[in-house]
Amino acid sequence: MKTLELVDINKTFYTELGELEVLKDINFSINEGEIVAIVGPSGSGKSTLLNIISNLIEPTSGKLVVNGEIGYMFQRDHLFNWRTVWKNVLLGLEITKNNDKNNEDRIKDLLNKYGLIDFINNYPQELSGGMRQRIALIRTLATNPSILLLDEPFSALDYQTRINVSNDIYKIIKDQNVSTLLVTHDISEAIAMADRIIVLSHRPAKLKEIIEINMNADITPIEKRKSSKFSYYFDKIWGLLNE
Ligand code: ADP
Ligand code: MG
User: What is the C-alpha separation between 26 and 71, in angstroms, rounded?
Assistant: First the structure.
């Protein structure tokens, strides 16, 4: 089943300086439980695309089909430093006025399963960048979305943390079977995490190619980085981005 489908999406911004054509005829879909990565040059329109999917902005033309709720996790974790971890993860439910006790139990299960339950009374600044990112993800998953949008979620982390956190986040996403659209400019991260990779051109972003990643989905992103196929995919995407 398709959780998300984009049909001929176009976006032009009209500003005082004139028209800026950002997205051109974008077509793709995401199947249930699939992780799709989007790679493209900086300024090509990746965040604009996520903003359209999450309904924050309207496309100029085209059709969007969304089956279910959307969870959106931004580049910075946006945890509130004056709220405890527990109060932070409850935020999504508060905003959506969701008082269902089952959801609180779900969140507790998630925190427990992913090693965060002992920290629920701590404040975000007391925790590592990697833990904060996992908490932000659990907060996003609290409302039980069927599609997760991740906009460069690891870019604020140092290299080693980034690799470890992407491994943890991958495990959570696959465990929870949530369809995911991951925007990144890191080719290796995209190959390590995604089932398919969409390569965008420079602005206005057109879809250059969709690449199927045929590596065993049961192995971790860190193990995938060591696979012999990894450099094949890297070369292919590098070539497309540098055409
Ligand atoms: P990316 O995420 O790929 O780096 P963005 O989607 O953030 O790129 O931006 C694509 C282009 O659209 C950029 O040139 C940016 O300046 C422009 N842009 C983004 N949002 C707006 C807006 N609300 N109004 C006008 N221009 C915008
Ligand atoms: Mg962006």
Answer: 21
The token pair that represents 119 in the structure block = 């920290």
What is the three-class DSSP state of 137? Answer: helix
Which atom of ligand 1 is nearest the CA belonging to 20? 26
Ligand nearest to the CA of 41: 1
Residue 14, ligand 1, Cβ within 6 A: no
User: Are the C-beta atoms of 44 and 201 separated by less than 8 Å?
Assistant: yes
Residues of the chain with pLDDT under 70: 77
Ligand 2 center from residue 112 Cα (angstroms)? 32
* pLDDT score of 78: 81
Note whether 4 and 53 are within 8 A (CB).
yes
214: phi then psi, degrees, rounded to nearest 5: -100, 70
For residues 98 and 103, give the distance between their C-alpha atoms in angstroms, rounded to a whole number.
Answer: 8
Residue for token pair 């196929």? 229
119 vs 10, 90, 241, CA distance in Å?
Answer: 44, 14, 42
| CB 56 less than 6 A from any atom of ligand 1 | no
Q: What is the mean pLDDT of the chain?
A: 92
Are the C-beta atoms of residues 101 and 128 closer than 8 Å to each other?
A: no
CA of 77 to the centre of ligand 1 (A): 20
Joined together, the tokens standing for residue 131 give 């833990």
Minimal-distance CA residue to ligand 1 atom 1: 43
> Ligand 1 pocket, 47 CB below 6 A?
yes
Cα(220)–Cα(223) distance, integer angstroms: 5
